[in-house]
Amino acid sequence: MKTMTCRQLGGACDLEFHASTFEGIAAQSKQHGREMFEKGDEAHLTTMNNMKAQMATPEAISAWFEGKRNEFEALPNNII
């Protein structure tokens, strides 16, 4: 099990996501993003717009995911 925060994934807060795979972390982050969008959270909306601008091409999206996946893989496992 590993932990990443919303901020580590490019987000606007320190909410922690816990999963044994990067896909699990990504799914939790995506759900959190939806919730913040629905709430109209300004900090998250601003961050989402900035990320959208940075990921204007499929190559940029792939590079971002690969970088975050590598960051996840480098993290130590949590002791629970």
Assembly type of the shown chains?
Answer: single chain
Low-confidence stretches: none
Strand order of the largest sheet: 1-2
- Number of extended strands: 2
Quick one: biggest sheet?
Answer: 2 strands, antiparallel
Helix content: 55-70%
Tally the helices: what do you get?
3
Distance between the ends:
8 Å
Order of helices and strands: EEHHH
Instruction: Estimate what percentage of residues fall within beta strands.
Output: 5-15%
From the alpha carbons, calculate the radius of gyration and give it in angstroms. Answer: 13 Å
Number of structural units classed as domains: 1
Q: What structural class do helix, strand and pairing data support?
A: mainly alpha
Shape: globular
Mean pLDDT: 94
What is the gist of this entry?
With 80 residues, the chain is mainly alpha-helical.
Describe what you observe in this structure.
This protein has 80 residues and is mainly α. It has one domain. It is 60% helix and 10% strand. The chain has helices at residues 22-39, 42-54, 58-74; strands at 2-5, 16-19. The chain has a two-stranded antiparallel sheet with strand order 1-2. The longest helix has 18 residues, at 22-39. The protein starts with a strand and ends in a 6-residue tail after the last helix.
Topology summary:
Elements lengths: L1 E4 L10 E4 L2 H18 L2 H13 L3 H17 L6
Antiparallel strand pairs: 1-2
Structural features:
3 helices; 80 residues; 60% helix; globular
